[in-house]
């Protein structure tokens, strides 16, 4: 069953899609307000799709049920992610990508983006793509797979996907070092990886949105 989504089209007959995954405990409405701040004149018509993650118990929050892409079992990043939950979310993302293809937007005109836990799923899904997407956006996040598992899952075609990462220098939730380690690993795999750092905590800032807009402009121009 497809996840419920919040959608926003910047103009009729969208030619591109941006599938954006929220962070832990948020929902698809969380990043919808970013659309008018991000979108620029001259871009092709876009469909933004903001899915709601399923409700699930989250171990580090005392088993409380909330919207989450996977269970977070431990504050230690190396032990944090529930890999079965990560894989379930990857399958749900793939179903949404397939729906966009059925609606006339093929993978090569779709950007997969995510913040925090949503960004972790974006990275995990992106490295396993056999049909490359137009690009990956991973904000304030980390790779939820051990390096060896990531290497085993890596598809040769996946490294053609440009990757934009951004992170707060003062992030107390996902330390900057975790984002840097993910960027370094993926760059080593062959991904064209951009990593931007900002003087902020676990958040998104105006400068970051501007840099992301520049990067997206380049993606649209490469079509």
Automatic annotation (TrEMBL):
Signal peptide per UniProt: none
Family: Belongs to the AB hydrolase superfamily. AB hydrolase 2 family.
Limits of the Phospholipase/carboxylesterase/thioesterase domain: 14-215
Keywords from the UniProt entry: Hydrolase
Superkingdom of origin organism: Bacteria
One function term, GO molecular function aspect: hydrolase activity
Organism: Thermomonas haemolytica
Record's protein name: Phospholipase/carboxylesterase
Keyword Hydrolase recorded: yes
């Amino acid at each position: 069953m497809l996840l419920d989504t919040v959608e926003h089209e910047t103009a009729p007959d969208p030619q591109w899609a941006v599938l954006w995954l929220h962070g832990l405990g948020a929902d698809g409405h969380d990043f919808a307000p970013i659309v008018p701040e991000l979108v620029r004149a001259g871009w092709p018509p876009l469909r933004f799709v903001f899915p709601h993650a399923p409700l699930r118990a989250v171990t580090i929050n005392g088993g409380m049920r909330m919207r989450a892409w996977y269970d977070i079992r431990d504050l230690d990043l190396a032990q944090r992610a529930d890999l079965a939950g990560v894989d379930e979310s990857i399958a749900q993302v793939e179903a949404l990508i397939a729906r966009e293809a059925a609606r006339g937007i093929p993978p090569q005109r779709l950007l997969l983006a995510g913040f925090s836990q949503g960004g972790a799923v974006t990275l995990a899904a992106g490295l396993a793509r056999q049909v490359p997407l137009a690009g990956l956006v991973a904000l304030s996040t980390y790779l939820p797979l051990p390096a060896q598992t990531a290497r085993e899952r890596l598809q040769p075609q996946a490294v053609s996907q440009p990757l934009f990462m951004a992170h707060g220098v003062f992030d107390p939730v996902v330390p900057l070092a975790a984002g840097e380690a993910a960027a370094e690993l993926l760059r080593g795999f062959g991904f064209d990886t951009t990593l931007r750092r900002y003087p902020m905590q676990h958040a998104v800032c105006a400068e970051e949105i501007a840099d992301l807009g520049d990067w997206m402009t380049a993606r649209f121009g490469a079509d």
